[in-house]
Every structure is written in C-alpha cells, then in structure tokens.
Amino acid sequence: MRVAERLLREYPFYLQPFFWMQRKKFGQLLNPAMLWARVPGLFLGVAFFNSVFSRKNSLLEAPLRSLVMVRVSQINHCKFCVDLNSYLLLKKAGSTNKLDELFNWKESEAFDERERVALEYAEAMTYSDRKVSDELFSRLREGFDDDAIVELTGLIAFQNLSSKFNSALDVPSQGFCKR
Q: How confident is the model at residue 136 (pLDDT cuts 50, 70, 90)?
C-alpha cells in the first residue's frame, strides 16, 4: 500500500466498534477501512454509505449488487474490491458461473436481461469515454423502477469512489476469494 496504516490504538475510540464488527464479519480488519479511518470523518461517511447499500431491504437483490460492484472494480483495477466483492457474490449467488463470465458478460448466456442492462449501465457510468444514452436509460426502466434506478446509480457511483480510492493507494487483495 502506498499509505501506511496506523496502529489500531492510534485510531479514535469511537471507531473501535466498527473495527470489531469487521473482525467479526470478515475475520480480519479491512485495509481500506484502516486507510479511510486516518481521517475519521471520511471513514464515518464511507461506513454510512456502505451500510445503506448493504441493507436487507435494498431495492436491489444482493447478488445483483455484488455483480455490479465486481464489474466496476474490474474496470478500475482494484485488487481489493474485486477480491472482497467476488467473495460476497460467491456467498450470495452460491456459484462461480457468473463470476467466471463477468469479463465477457456481453457474449455470455449466464446473465439475464436485468443483469445485462445493469452491467451496461455500470460500464457507461464507469468508463470516462462513455455516456449513459437515452436508449440505455429506456432499457434500464424496463427492469427497474425509478427508486431502484436511483439506488443502482448510487451504488455504481459509490463503488467507483471506493475502487478508485483503493486502486490509487494500491490496496492489495486480502485473500477473501480463493479461486
């Protein structure tokens, strides 16, 4: 990593419960969390956003969220995000089929129409040389209502923030998805 983590005791006391929860959920502290926590206000904002997108009553099903997050992470060359989000996708989907096909999702028959349009939308938002066209947005409306589109857009934007942060700071994978 390009920026060193601090010793755990150097972080504010009010962040310690977050670290405890990470250890409980993942068996280890996440490197990006330790970096965000160097600026506690940023950490709290990122933690809040993350909790919104991973809530149980999300308008987007968990495997679709993870699928989109892996694809955005692949595009942004974020080793950590691909690792963690692939693990979450495998855990939620129970199969490696879609993960194995994700680089070539356009040619693959593994994805349904809703997943395809979500992945196309994610790519249009992520690649800086692309734009979300009216035609793409019309197709997006066929599978998602307005609230789900807003949540999907927020998820893609948040994953771009997260994966670009981690990629720029060269955050390594932490061995979650052992495939």
A: very high
